[in-house]
Design brief:
About 45% of the residues lie in helices and about 10% in strands.
Amino acid sequence: MSPHHVSPSTPEGFLTPTFDDMALTSSTPSDNVSIDSSDISSSIKRPLVPGLYVPTVAFFDPITEDLDLATIRKHTVRLAQAGVVGITTQGSNGEAVHLTHAERRQVTAATRKALDEADFNDVPVIVGCGSQSTRETVELCRDAAQSGGDYALVLPPAYYKTLFAPDSILEYFRDVATRSPIPILIYNYPGAVSGLDLSSEDIIELAKHPNIIGCKLTCGNTGKLNRIASATRAATFSDPGSGFMCLGGSADFTLQTLIGGGSGIIAGLGNVSPKACIDVMKLFEAGKLNEARRMQALVARGDWAAIQGGIVGTKSAMQSFFGYGGYGRKPLPKPGKAEAGKWAKAFEELVQFEKSL
């Protein structure tokens, strides 16, 4: 297993665009260009550390559905102030499938700029970059880097999965990792890719690539997580290990992730209750397992509301309790008064605790 430790230093000129300019530019991948990913992995400016990463919500004008960059920046800073160790853009919570390439760049650039202006310069930004072709995925990785992203989170393609050869998915990830200007994390989320579920053997094998530095497991398979964490010597709060990040993909198994040797979570519930999610981790690390279990139960009840309501319920709860959130882009529905009340009630217990922290 290649070590995945990284240096906090950055070579001059590496990933230093002017974000306001880069937000509206596009990069076109060349089939003839190959990146020396071992050099890239040793020059990461903002290393990933164990903890809570939040896949942020994208906000829109309620009438025009244009990006609401001011609210995106405000929300990013609120999360950083709560103690999250990283931000993820362009995930399912960020409605990546509803955004153009230019809008994706704008969201990532606004997120990076907000963190820097609020003196959270060390907080990394992970950018969702999965697409159905290797070529477009590499293009999204390059766009992410130019817009201020530090890492790419990549789903496997699945539209043509019945036509794939046995090694097509492994080849896809290796090709993307070799050509991406930023390190990548494998995103295993069968529900988003027609049931395609990477095995622990697949991810352990891919982890040998020097530019694949972690994974997010939204499959909920804690046995798989434990096998990957053990084989890769994943980073934990108490042991940096190899530096590989083995991350759970949902707040409802935060404690299970940590017990299994995982590095933390990337959890959409963090948009609503980042402090409560972090509290589970703090209690576990302090050895207060009974308190951690009780806290995990509270978080899991709140996460069940987030799972049932998806981005519609999450945004509705944010609007009810924090005064911002708005709606998803069409064709996502706008909750009426009764539905908004339903989501407010479902999240109420967790939000009340969040506000007490």
